[in-house]
């Protein structure tokens, strides 16, 4: 028996303990391995997994600095293996995993606010190595701090290629069968590549919103039995759950999965809860009707809009309905393909982000410009062509400069208002108005007596911020007279 | 006693019989005059009115050519006066009054289709004579075949001037009172000017959608008692009801009228029905909630949108709800004033027209560009500044070239479809798709077996129509890839 274990790990990094063990039979199904990690501040038991070629692995993310001891037990070990390691300072820029904070918002484990400005590239990691690198390079220069993508390959318009490998071991095909799998055995090569993608994203500060199941499938992965799915969920959670930037999305368009009923989803959520000691953020994404996001295992609402005309305009309604953070991760894509969900202007996509923001919620980007080479950011990654990302960077910079998250406030029927809440009875430190597709030449404002605010007029499309000076009492602000204007009032007295 | 009567009147013109009578007392309230007009095809009794200075007038619109006899009775006449006149051919371009046709649409009395493309200029007729003429000139060069305007002057933002005259006789003011009226006496000068406006519009083929009451008022006209309002309604209907282009709109934003309840509106509708032998088109326009448009006296729905984001997208819903033609006469205005209803882009206003059209309904234009001179088309008329009117002309030309009205048909979730219905089991003669704010690069179509259609791609903003040739079976059309595209398929086999 051999064992490898890092002697030092940075806080929120990954300790990886590797033990040799049996290769015979089906180790994926027949053997199990578990690690318990102990520190003054936490005791955490993490499931391990079989990585092929006699390698058994337990991964662990430490949440504290200092000494940890571990204790590994396994079906093939006579007695537990113990040891210790040191957890050092977190690496520069690492703030830990993202959690729900203030009911409707998010923060990293160390308290740093996290404001999701996400994108979707369903199978970017399954493209060529060159495009894989290009996508990471594009992301690095982008506003995106979260990316939704699938574990499994995708079969859909513009998505007809085969992946470099498959998640499951091949089985013997029956006559006329295109694919056959042994769902009890995984291909570690496939998952190591997925981990590489997650790690690379983590290094860039990008959250990996992992879509565990999806219906766009010619391989048969959407038609596994529940117990096969649970076996796969256990394996996936054990393998990648220690990476601090992992979020669980049970499915994309769960309601299009051909044979699944609510009980199945609940069982799968149970599998995650049982095997994920970190309680990573967990959601389930719809096509038509929303899942019941009040279920206790749902940490935040990951929503596709249900109406062609009203998308993020309903975020405040959904906040009230579910009492959790709302991310409208599919509000349509900037692009020009044939499908109605994939041919928005950059202006409209940006507007939908601001409509979510001003209602105390969040949105997700995606891009689907027609390409006869079938390379669209939405699935493949590569490079961005659209006009919205620059504006989403402007939005993200605006949000990052605020002293706290935006909450819906005293809106008028024809502007939406949010504020960074102050204490009770106190005028808020920041008030924001957003004018959407309207084009007011001016608006009139009245501030609470005894307060003064610096007024700024924003053009969220032209990405300008114009200082209009200190205001008290009632005053008129001349705006841009163009669409997508906003006003930001920052308290100075 | 003197009597004047035209010896010949064109069909759908106005016969005006004037009789001298008493000036003493209050002829507006104390006297009455009525005419009965008889022809092989119709017998019609029309109320007359007092026009001041001893002039009593009965107006009549003949619907048939040939000989008419008349019989005038009045409270001040010992016996009826009779006579006859000849009705000649309608003047060139005159098709008679507009009526509801095919449940959801309109046609002139002679069967010519009427497709409303209306605008709103609330008090254009109460501006200077120079601007009055300028407005008519602008209308003449515009796409608009209907205009909504008020009988009474308007008090609101950008509307603070006094009219050249007042509809009622002045009464003695109490101390501190700005205005005082004898609501039992009218000022014929005021109404003659209104009639001039209606006639001038009629000569241009523009329908006059007359707003009988409205809440934007500093003169007290919105606070008359019900019986005062009924007295005024009787007078107005008797005076202008004979003009073929008159439509009755009981009120603009009826639900903002300070002291009115449903029973009052029903009583006023009854007054119209009792005194209007022509059964002119009659509607009532909301601010918030719709009136009950299923009421039998409501001929068509004249609606203001209720939702900031969905306006004419709901036209098919409202058609089903009310079973009558739907005109969304206030869907927001093109402009840039401070109010959210008055600062749409020309693109958005035009899109809302097409959304109404593709759902088998109609829409109304309005324009509110900021003017420190307080001259805005929406109230004052004068000239148009916007980008939508040219596109509405394109829409009107498109509609006018169709062989019948558009009815909603087999829509997809991401395009709206309408057709000019054919017979049962028959493929329709024309099929139209509209893509709204979406930007499909192409769409795929399948035609019924055995049919062939000429395919055209429309850019409703750039106002282009591109012939793509004859198509059969399944085919792909490459579209503009820009917003506001449409497809028109015209059956050739």
Describe the protein:
With 493 residues, the first copy, chain A, is of the alpha/beta class. Chain A folds into three domains: 86 residues, Sandwich (Immunoglobulin-like); 303 residues, Glycosidases (TIM Barrel); 83 residues, Immunoglobulin-like. In chain A, 20% of the residues lie in helices and 31% in strands. In chain A, the strands form seven sheets. An eight-stranded mixed sheet of chain A has the order 1-3-6-5-4-7-8-2, with helices on one face. In chain A, strands 18-17-16-13-12-22-20-19 form an eight-stranded parallel sheet. A six-stranded antiparallel sheet of chain A has the order 24-25-26-31-28-29, with helices on one face. Chain A is globular, with a radius of gyration of 24 Å. Chains A and B meet through β27 of A and β27 of B.
Q: How many β-strand runs of chain A?
A: 31
Number of domains of chain A: 3
Largest interface: A-B, 31 and 31 residues
How does the helix and strand content of chain A classify structurally? alpha/beta
Mean pLDDT of chain A: 97
What is CATH's topology name of the largest domain in chain A?
TIM Barrel
Q: How much beta of chain A, percentage-wise?
A: 25-35%
Output the radius of gyration of chain A: 24 Å
Can you say what the CATH homologous superfamily of the largest domain in chain A is? Answer: Glycosidases
What distance separates the N and C termini of chain A? 69 Å
Shape verdict of chain A: globular
């Amino acid at each position: 028996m051999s064992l490898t274990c890092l002697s030092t790990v940075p806080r929120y990094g990954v300790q990886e303990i590797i033990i040799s063990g049996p290769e015979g039979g089906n180790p994926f199904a027949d053997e199990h391995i578990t690690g318990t990690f102990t520190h003054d501040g936490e005791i955490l038991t993490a499931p391990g997994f079989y990585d092929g070629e006699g390698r058994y692995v337990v991964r662990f993310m430490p949440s504290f600095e200092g000494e940890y001891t571990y204790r590994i037990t396994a079906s093939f070990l006579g007695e537990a293996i113990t040891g210790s390691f040191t957890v050092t300072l977190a690496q520069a820029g690492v703030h830990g995993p993202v959690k729900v904070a203030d009911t409707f918002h998010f923060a990293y484990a160390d308290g740093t606010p996290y404001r999701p400005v996400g994108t979707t590239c369903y199978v970017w990691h399954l493209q060529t190595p060159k495009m894989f690198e290009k996508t990471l390079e594009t992301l690095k220069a982008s506003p995106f701090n979260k990316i939704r993508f699938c574990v499994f390959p995708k079969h859909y318009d513009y998505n007809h290629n085969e992946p470099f490998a498959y998640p499951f071991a091949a089985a013997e095909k029956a006559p006329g069968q295109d694919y056959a799998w042994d769902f009890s055995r995984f291909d570690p090569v496939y998952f190591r590549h997925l981990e590489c993608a997650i790690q690379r994203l983590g290094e860039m500060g990008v959250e990996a919103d992992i879509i565990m199941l999806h219906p766009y499938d010619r391989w048969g992965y959407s038609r596994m039995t529940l117990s096969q799915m649970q076996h796969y969920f256990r394996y996936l959670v054990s393998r990648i759950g220690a990476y601090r930037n992992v979020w669980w999305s049970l499915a994309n368009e769960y309601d299009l999965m051909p044979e699944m009923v609510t009980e199945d989803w609940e069982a799968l959520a149970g599998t995650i809860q049982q095997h994920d000691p970190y309680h990573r953020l967990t959601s389930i994404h719809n096509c038509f009707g929303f899942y019941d996001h009040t279920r206790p295992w749902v940490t935040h609402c990951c929503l596709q809009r249900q109406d062609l005309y009203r998308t993020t305009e309903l975020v405040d309604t959904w906040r009230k309905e579910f009492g959790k953070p709302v991310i409208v991760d599919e509000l349509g894509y900037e692009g020009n393909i044939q499908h109605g969900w994939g041919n928005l202007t950059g202006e409209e996509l940006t507007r939908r982000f601001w409509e979510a923001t001003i209602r105390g919620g969040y949105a997700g980007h995606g891009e689907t410009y027609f390409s006869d080479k079938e390379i669209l950011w939405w699935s493949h990654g590569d490079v961005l062509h659209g006009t919205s990302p620059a504006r989403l960077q402007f939005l993200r910079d605006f949000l990052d400069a605020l002293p706290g998250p935006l909450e819906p406030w005293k809106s008028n029927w024809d502007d939406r208002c949010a504020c960074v809440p102050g204490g009770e009875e106190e005028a808020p430190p920041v008030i924001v108005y957003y004018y959407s597709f309207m084009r007011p030449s001016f608006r009139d404002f009245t501030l609470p007596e005894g307060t003064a605010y610096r007024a700024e007029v924003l053009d969220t499309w032209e990405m300008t911020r114009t200082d209009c000076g200190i205001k008290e009492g009632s005053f008129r602000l001349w705006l841009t007279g163009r669409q997508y204007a906003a006003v930001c009032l920052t308290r100075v007295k």
